[in-house]
Amino acid sequence: MAYDEGLAERIRQHLGSEPDITEKRMFGGIAFLHSGNMAVGVTGDDLMVRVGPEATDAALARPGARIFDMTGRPMRGWVVVAGSAVAEDEALSEWIGQGHAFAASLPSK
């Protein structure tokens, strides 16, 4: 499955100066990890964000967000955000910040 390289590049630019960020092919797209924990990624034209179980409901209330479900088993703590909902840099930055903060709160892998 192809992914939106333009969206991936925007994420790279945002996270470029962050320490401990790596990229890895995952879920048919690309993921950005902080110390081995996924923070955000791109699948197709959409943004994947790891928000954590406690923040899932609030994240799902935001425009363009839906539960992350690639296998028929929804993953609590993860959301997918429509690419159109992160077309503006401010919205993308907010989602990246949330995903990065959650990943940074986890023990390194």
From TrEMBL:
Protein name stated in the entry: TfoX/Sxy family protein
Domain of life of the native organism: Bacteria
Domain (TfoX N-terminal): residue spans on this chain: 15-102
One Pfam assignment: TfoX_N
